[in-house]
Amino acid sequence: MRIHVLAFAALAALALAAASASAQQIETIDGFVEGAPDSRDYARLLQQVGKPGARPAGVSGNDSCQWANDNECDEPGVGTGACPSGTDYSDCWRIMQGVEDDSCRWARDGECDEPGFGTGACPQGTDLTDCGDVIHLRFQTDRCDTAFNGVCEEPSRGDGRCEARTDRTDCSTRDRPLTINDHFFGRDDRILMDTGAFPWSVVGYVDFDQGGTCTATLIGPDVLITAAHCISEGGRVTAAGEFRTGEALAGGQRTARVVDYLLDPDWNEPRFSNSDDIDGTDWALLRIDRRIGDELGHVGVLDLSQAGGRAAQRERLWQAGYSWDTGTNLSGNEDCRILDFNRDNTMAHDCDTTRGDSGSPFMVRRGEEWLVVATDSNFRSNPNGPMIYIAALSGRWAGLVEPFQAGEIGNEGLRPRGPGKPEPIAPIKK
Fold first, then answer.
1. Tell me: the pLDDT tens digits for 231-240?
2. How many Cβ atoms sit within 10 Å of the Cβ of residue 32?
3. In the chain, is it the N or the C terminus that has fewer CB atoms within a 10 Å radius of its CB?
4. Cα–Cα dist 50/9, whole Å
5. Structural domain boundaries of the chain?
């Protein structure tokens, strides 16, 4: 999901939204509570609100980096390394000085609010009590090309084949505290997928011209499925971008340009961002300018509402996406399950997904056929346990793939759509 930077006044809106949502909770068919504000709300509304503390003696620097004051330390060695040394002072001084504390206004509320593995509402080092059991994971990733192989390969703890802090799971453990927002089921079960082998060779990503990336999957010779929130932001739809897939194929990565899109007629970005009411509309079909599916193949689609419904909860799920913490590697799950179906065309699942996985496919296998049953969307809060991760089921778009591919429906190109709801799906031409 793309990150929004909002003004301090958003706090008032958050308080109002939280009160309203709490008063109007709606139960799904199996008791999940919808309507309460979740960490997605907090991440959107509270990012960059906390003010940096006073400048301590003995630590120098400035905030000249473009990523300064985003609450996350980006200096090399102590942070992400995205900024030159000494240019992200306000976000880094607590870590550099060793004076992490509970100075954030949302400290001690039972939820980790630091960036990366929390909501992002607090600057790094200001929510010590709530984040204490996860800060050992700070700035560590699984970006190494041999991550998840069971062998620690970092310089300080292994043979040095991986760069420092890029082989997290192999050098520490797969166990994850339930307070973490990433891989929240207590264990990270992901593996790296071979992008030179089907079906992972057709699970790629779109680099959008307006910034950001999302996972997308070939479901036709020139048709992709991804998430609506990947192309909808600030009341506008901007789908232009380049699709990339099959990095490990002979001859290298295949690419194509996005030339058209189709959204659900009930998609409404503000409503999606501020509630759980329409998560089932979080899908987007994209048409590309090259029929690379003729060469690589493509996966199929299965509408679970027409295929046994709840019996599918016993089926094995495969999922893969370009997670934020695995770099350019495709990571995913090869044995997870559907936990529940909701009335809003969504399902809850136990696959380990995180930022960057938006739009990624959840597939079942029928013989040699791979079928997309849902796409990754977002998560919901769960007062009695870990976050509930939500995917949009394929039922609302499964029957639209062929007419969209034929050009009978769609938007006739990439004309930006202004604020408001998208136009209804056009009738299929006869």
1. 998 888 999 9
2. 18
3. C
4. 12
5. 135-175, 184-430
